[in-house]
Design goal:
With 262 residues, the protein is an alpha/beta fold.
Length: 262
């Protein structure tokens, strides 16, 4: 399924328009809550293909995570931009983003149920091979996909981009048999060196196949072009890094190409 090995943010070797990417807003339920996601696929690709869940930053399931779903569709996958907050709720201030994301982190059983509901919907899509599923996440979402791996989610691979690493429930040996890739900004003040070492030890002890890539000079939210604006607006250490963005996406694509090789 590997159709490209490198791309700049939002720029593919084959333009999105030529890839016939089709996106649709979807709703699904978990418990008594309704969630608003987005599914993207390439209508020019025949047959079933792997499905990828994309979990948003702490801002919520906004246009950025939908664009990433479109990019995955252009690579030959079907992707769902997940809504972890419910009702498509989006934050426009760090205070609200912290509140929304904190509520999810405080109840990981609910988080798992919400993630599973999105996965179930993805597997139901006619274009998806339900036996080949992976997940990626950004910032808050990177922490979410790592937690789902620790909990033994039925995923072939997960990729975290500038995501949180800590957990109240470290992975146990055999809990996750898929591949893990973590892409981190080496100068991200939110991720301490001791957290990195603890994560690596956790993965080693759990016998998980993983890679950890640290990008020198990159800080938090390095894949998002809006990071500079938000960083200046809210006085936060956020900044886009095109080189780290391009390289991490290419490495993710390579991993999926290996995991989903026909």
């Amino acid at each position: 399924m590997r159709r490209a090995t490198a791309l700049l943010l939002f720029t593919l070797c084959i333009p999105l328009a030529q890839a016939d990417v089709v996106g649709q807003e979807v709703t699904y339920n978990s418990g008594d809550k309704t969630f608003q996601g987005y599914i993207a696929t390439d209508s020019a690709v025949e047959g079933k293909r792997p499905g990828i869940l994309v979990v948003h930053e702490w801002w919520g399931s906004n246009e950025y995570v939908r664009k990433r779903a479109d990019m995955l569709a252009a690579l030959g996958y079907t992707a769902i931009a997940v809504d972890m907050y419910g009702d498509g709720k989006i934050a426009d201030h760090p205070d609200d983003a912290g509140k929304f994301s904190g509520e999810v982190r405080e109840n990981l059983d609910d988080a798992e149920a919400r993630f599973q509901a999105a996965m179930d919907l993805l597997k139901q899509q006619p274009s998806v091979d339900g036996e080949r599923i992976a997940a990626i996440g950004y910032c808050f979402g990177g922490g979410v996909v790592l937690e789902m791996a620790r909990r033994g989610a039925d995923l072939d691979a997960v990729a975290s981009f500038h995501g949180s690493l800590g957990t109240p429930m470290p992975a146990e040996p055999g809990a996750f048999t898929g591949r893990v890739a973590v892409f981190n900004g080496a100068d991200d003040p939110f991720v301490k060196p001791e957290q990195i070492e603890a994560f690596k030890s956790e993965m080693d002890n759990a016998e998980v196949s993983y890679v950890f890539v640290n990008y020198p000079g990159a800080v938090h939210s390095f894949t998002n072009p809006d990071a500079d604006v938000n960083g200046e607006k809210f006085d936060l250490p956020l900044k886009y890094n095109a080189e780290a963005d391009e390289d991490s996406w290419a490495k993710m694509n390579d991993m999926f190409g290996e995991v989903f090789a026909d």
